Amino acid sequence: ELSESESALLAVIAEHDGKRAGDIYDAFNDRTGLGYTRYSEITNKLDQLGIIEAAYADVEGRGRTRELALNYDADAVLERL
What we know:
Blueprint: H1 4-15, H2 21-32, H3 36-48, E1 52-59, E2 63-70, H4 74-80
Antiparallel strand pairs: 1-2
Helix pairs in contact: 1-2, 1-3, 1-4
């Protein structure tokens, strides 16, 4: 069972599938008001549970970022939240 904030992040990821972690954080923060530390903890939990894939990617001129993608169909995930 996911908490309210975990479900909120999962919904944001479903709506922004494959986007960079920073973009997803901005949308998550707008929706919940929660900070980056909590966002990072939830991202790691969802990754460990196998719900999302958090893959590191190099961004030219900006260093490394994580790209977050669902391991399940986005519409199916949103229906269950």
